[in-house]
Amino acid sequence: MSLGAGAQLPPLAVYIHLPWCLQRCGYCDFNAHALRGELPARAYVDALGRELRRQAPAALGRRVTSVFIGGGTPSLFPPGPIGELLDTLDAVLGLESGAEITLEANPGASENARLRGFRQAGVTRLSLGVQSLDDTLLARLGRIHDAVAAREAVAEAYAVGFRGINADVMYGLPGQGVTGAEADVAGVIALGADHVSHYQLTIEPETPFGRRPPPGLPDEETVLEMEAVCRQRLAQAGLERYEVSAFARPGQRSVHNLGYWTFGDYLGLGAGAAGKRTGADGRVLRTRQRRSPRAWMAAVGSARVEAECIELTPSEQAFEVLLNGLRLREGLPERLAVARSGCSLPALRDWLAPLCAGGWLEWRGGRIRASAAGYEMLDTLLLELLPGPPDPGSGGSAPSSHGGNALK
């Protein structure tokens, strides 16, 4: 597949994974490793610089629009190496003027003292793992901070000059009721968070919670009520729901996450980091680096650092564009959907016609989005898009894997 005359590559972002944390939480299924001994900050950041240079040709001349430093607990790293890493990134690839640079941080006294240093190092936005403002619930989750530390972290972040602050807040916690879930949301609103990521606790199989679920998990009806009440409270406070789990004040949407949801490109750096890149020929590759920090550092700078490198088929590419784009409440412009998916406009219309006719998708004003009913059943709706449209030249149509029954 070729990009074609006049076609443009997607914007480019960078995801950097810093995999260590002080203690792994019982629900966490990310590539996080409890720190044993001294943090190898210098060696790891040097390795990130070498890996960045190896991947630099994939940028194809594009500058970087956003950087997200996730983990693990990136705020365990000293600000100095973080600043050096950002300087290296700017020197190798170039940062767009005003690029959004987000760092994940967990509340805690020792880390709060570093926030000024992170701001001076070039970080423009913080994502704080608040999760709850109830000390009992935090302890049940295995978090090592308390509500006081969370409040102090937000206050300190504003005091040192951050103006883009996201608070991660979870609901559906063991022993939590609707009133408690609403109180957590009300608490982060009162703290002045610009952006709230509001997630239901999910029990993943390969985690301590998956092996031994905590007692007191609320039932589905209670969880749905929590979700509705919290959404209403966020809306009343002026935080618009622009994505399934994301709420933002005007001008505070996450540039980096919007890149994911609109099928932008991103280089993945660090142990377990995922990447997605588009070649000059239009082919889309998904990559994932080795998960073990020790193995990753040993392999860095060579092709062996990537545990996976998978080329998407045209059908997979089109499906992923919609998989991500329909998470946005306003959906995708049709021109962007065509450009990112590689589908022609007629092929895209044929593929989506049954769901539009059924009232689950809306296609008007040059935009494709889930209807109000479809948005509330988005996971089921997305299954209806499988296996994607037919690959060019394959002939025939791509039937729904459920024949439409799941949405009746």
UniProtKB/TrEMBL annotation:
The record ties this protein, via InterPro entries, to: Aldolase_TIM, Coproporphyrinogen-III_oxidase, Elp3/MiaA/NifB-like_rSAM, HemN_C, HemW-like, rSAM, rSAM_sf
User: GO cellular-component terms in the record?
Assistant: cytoplasm
Q: Locate the compositionally biased regions of type Low complexity.
A: 397-408
Listed A to Z, the keywords are:
4Fe-4S, Chaperone, Cytoplasm, Heme, Iron, Iron-sulfur, Metal-binding, Oxidoreductase, S-adenosyl-L-methionine
An MF annotation (GO) of this entry: coproporphyrinogen oxidase activity
**What are the boundaries of the signal sequence?**
none
Q: Where in the cell is it found?
A: Cytoplasm
Give positions of region: Disordered: 386-408
Q: Which residues form the Radical SAM core domain?
A: 6-240
Instruction: Cite a single GO BP annotation.
Output: porphyrin-containing compound biosynthetic process
Cofactors needed by this protein, per the record, are: [4Fe-4S] cluster
Protein family per UniProt? Belongs to the anaerobic coproporphyrinogen-III oxidase family. HemW subfamily.
| NCBIfam families, A to Z | hemN_rel
Summary of the function given for this chain in its UniProt record: Probably acts as a heme chaperone, transferring heme to an unknown acceptor. Binds one molecule of heme per monomer, possibly covalently. Binds 1 [4Fe-4S] cluster. The cluster is coordinated with 3 cysteines and an exchangeable S-adenosyl-L-methionine.
Alphabetized PANTHER family for the sequence: COPROPORPHYRINIGEN III OXIDASE, RADICAL S-ADENOSYL METHIONINE DOMAIN-CONTAINING PROTEIN 1, MITOCHONDRIAL
Please report the name of this protein according to its UniProt entry: Heme chaperone HemW
